[in-house]
Amino acid sequence: MKEIIAYEMSFKKEIEYSDEVFCIPFKKIYWNEYLQKYNECFYEMRKDLEIEPINFYSDYSQMIDKAGNTYLCLKNGVIAGAVSCYGNEIDDLFVDKSFQRQGLGRKLLLWGINHIKEQGYDEIILHVAEWNQNAVKLYLQTGFTIQKKERVR
């Protein structure tokens, strides 16, 4: 079984947010598309780190408790990316492969930061696998700092 190292990261700065991306609350009508894109975006990491099941989502019942905290960015009527905001925590941020390398990940991250700050939180946290170096770099460049490095498995 492979070792998994994760970072807990924190953001405590002010941001100047411009509405560069528009997100809508998750709706059940997007479930099948969300399931497919979420599983596709996290597939390589889960496979490489031997996290079972490799395709995390398989049934809508897994989403019911998360739906109210999940937001979708649509482009031409399809999910381009998504981000979940649980209290002061950002989670499950992903960008569909066909929309990657266009700055959408950063825009979704800033949207999530702004959304959480609008709820009255000063500090925002997230957790990221060390394996996901592109995400780690994005978070550091955006102003997150590593608070803790931990061995998850």
Poorly predicted spans:
none
Distance between the termini: 8 Å
The neighbouring-strand order within the major sheet is 2-3-4-5-6-1-7
The total strand number stands at: 7
Gross geometry: globular
Structural class: alpha+beta
Q: Major β-sheet, in short?
A: 7 strands, mixed
Counted by DSSP, the helix tally is 3
Instruction: Give the % helix.
Output: 25-40%
Descriptive overview:
The chain has three helices and seven strands; from the N terminus they run E-E-H-E-E-E-H-E-H-E. It is α+β, with helices and mostly antiparallel strands. Strands 2-3-4-5-6-1-7 form a seven-stranded mixed beta sheet, with helices on both faces.
Helices, strands, pairings?
Elements: E1 5-11, E2 24-25, H1 31-48, E3 70-75, E4 78-86, E5 89-95, H2 104-118, E6 124-129, H3 133-142, E7 145-151
Parallel strand pairs: 5-6
Antiparallel strand pairs: 1-6, 1-7, 2-3, 3-4, 4-5
What labels describe this entry?
globular, 153 residues, alpha+beta, 7-stranded mixed beta sheet
What does this entry show, briefly?
This protein is α+β, with helices and mostly antiparallel strands. It contains 3 helices and 7 strands, in the order ββαβββαβαβ.
